[in-house]
Amino acid sequence: METVLLFLSFFVVLLEANVIFNKDDLTRCPPILPRNSNLFAYIDTCFEIVHDEHSWNDARGHCQQHGGDLVVIKDLTKQQFVMNALKYLRWDKKGVWIGGTDGDHEGEWKWVTGEKMTWGYWQHGQGVTQTGFLFAKGTFEDCAQIRVDDSYKWHDFPCSGGPAYHYSSICEYKMPKLLTSSTTITNVETPVPTTMAKTETSAATTLAKIETPAPTVLPNVETPAPTVLPNVETPAPTVLPNVETPAPTLPNVETPAPNKDTSTRMNSNTQGAGIVNKDTVVIG
C-alpha cells in the first residue's frame, strides 16, 4: 500500500511538472543552458536554479556569463512559480539568491535591472523594515534571498563575507525573439491571417481581386456619309455662232482688150492654145 501511494505521489509530481512548468517550452531557452530538471520556462523567460553555492556577486557573475542575471520577482504570481519549482526539486539548500539589493543606498531596494522594488515577499523585520544585523543597523545586509527554511520568505543577507554567506541562486534569461536553426517554437498560437479583399489565387502568387474595367465604349457617333458635291451640270462646249465664211471677193478688174499687135502674135501662136471666150485667153 505504501509503495502504491509513493508511486502515485511521484506520478502527480511529474504531472504537475509538465502542466505547471510546461517543460515543452524549454526549447525556447538559450541553447547555452543545460537541459536538465533545474531549467524552467516562465512566459518569455527561463529560470535556471543553480545548485552550486556562491556569494551574491559571484552568483550574479555566473548568470551574466551565460547572458542572464539574477531573477527579478515583481509580483505574487511569479513568486509562487518560483516556490513551486523549488518544491518540485525538493530543494535542499536553505538560501537562494535573487536579484534584489540596496547596496547603492541603504534602505532603497531595487532590482538588478535598476528598477525600484515596489513589491516584496519579505519576512517581517527584513528588507525594507530591517533595523540591523548583529546590532550593525543593517549596514552589511544588502542582498536579498529566498529562505527555503522560512516558508520561502525573503531575507536580506550580506552579499559576501566568506563561505558562511555562500548560497544557491536563480538565474533568469530572456527567451530569444529570433529563431535559430537549432531552436523551434512550440505551443505558440498562430495569429489568424489577415483577411484581405476577395482574392483569386494563382499558381504561385495571391493577388487581390481587381475587377478589370469593361472596355471603354465610345459614344455611337454616326459616320457622316461621304460629301456629295452639288450636281453641277457641265456646260456644253461653247458653240461658236455659225458664221458663214464669205467667199473671197476678187476685185472686178476689167481685162483690157488686146491691141492689134498682140492679137496678131496670138493668132500666130495658136498651136497649143485654145480660145475659151473672147475675153479670156488661156495660155498652153
UniProtKB/TrEMBL annotation:
<feature type="signal peptide">
    <location>
        <begin position="1"/>
        <end position="17"/>
    </location>
</feature>
<feature type="compositionally biased region" description="Polar residues">
    <location>
        <begin position="260"/>
        <end position="272"/>
    </location>
</feature>
<protein>
    <recommendedName>
        <fullName>C-type lectin domain-containing protein</fullName>
    </recommendedName>
</protein>
<dbReference type="InterPro" id="IPR016186">
    <property type="entry name" value="C-type_lectin-like/link_sf"/>
</dbReference>
<feature type="domain" description="C-type lectin">
    <location>
        <begin position="42"/>
        <end position="160"/>
    </location>
</feature>
<dbReference type="Pfam" id="PF00059">
    <property type="entry name" value="Lectin_C"/>
</dbReference>
<dbReference type="InterPro" id="IPR050111">
    <property type="entry name" value="C-type_lectin/snaclec_domain"/>
</dbReference>
<dbReference type="InterPro" id="IPR016187">
    <property type="entry name" value="CTDL_fold"/>
</dbReference>
<feature type="region of interest" description="Disordered">
    <location>
        <begin position="243"/>
        <end position="284"/>
    </location>
</feature>
<keyword id="KW-0732">Signal</keyword>
<dbReference type="InterPro" id="IPR001304">
    <property type="entry name" value="C-type_lectin-like"/>
</dbReference>
